[in-house]
Amino acid sequence: MNPAGADLTLAGNANMALYASMIVYTLAMLVFAWHLAARAGQLQAPRAVDRDEVLVGSTVTAAGATTGSLPSAGVRRSTPAEPAFEESPVSAQRGNIALMLTYLATALLVGSVILRGFAVARPPWGNMFEFATAAAAAVGLTYSVLAKRNRWQWLGVFIVTPVLLVLGLALAVLYTEAGELMPALKSYWLAIHVGVAFLAVAFFTIAAAIGVVYLVRLRREEKPPARRGFIESLPSSAALERTAYSLNMVAFILWTFTLIAGAIWAKQAWGAYWQWDPKEVWTFVIWTVYAAYMHGRATAGLDLRRSMSIALAGYACVIINFTLVNLVSTFVGMHNYSGM
Question: Taking a C-beta distance cutoff of 8 angstroms, is the pair 221, 304 a contact?
């Protein structure tokens, strides 16, 4: 039956674009893994290297100067204790192919979300299926924007894989037919509040991926393995940690806005800024954990490994907020719009 207010033709096209994006993302994941395999085979014996590797957003001039860095740019200075790494044309080509596939897959996914929005004539995040696909699109788009400039091909497999898992979960478990929006969500705050939340989650996700890689890289630096793998070809642990901190800072600012916007919307919809709704509580829990991370990161003498663990705990709270809080009956509240 045609749900009221939904264009089933556009909704079907949105689904086709979603399936196509998953196929292309799968190809990108495989090529990213192939790229990492090539990097692992290029490591040379440890030696001093007279160069700087700029991790985030800088351009190296012919004279060796750097320009145009993003906040907290991570600069890796090779030391006699770490292996030199010069990427081969073959490895670079594989990374670029994977990145191009990611661009295509992300364009298809964004197109799917837009078509779904046109099909239902509203912002396309009125149920858990739409939440999941829109959030995955935000992660893919944010990574695509940052990856080329920062040469983050090495990070691709750690981003594309969870995006694929989310899309698979959305189709297999969360799928909901296109239909009208629930009355409680019919507000311009839906686009503002939820849209900024998606962007914050995208930055949190990329920062969490880099944070996990940082912990592995740090362990390998402290206890060098007998045989080096692709981990040793990645930027230094210090550079990875600084980059994750930069991304978490951006995400934290966006999440702060999300929390405030949600309170304003709650006042308009329910007559009070705060109702102790499970979604409200977990949104504040996420903010609190990341605030603790920011404070710990700025505290002199605190172990950076410990502060990164706090950040990853915060990301675990993000996952709980977007899954269990919406799907488990224990957390039933005014925010339960899963559509299931």
Answer: no
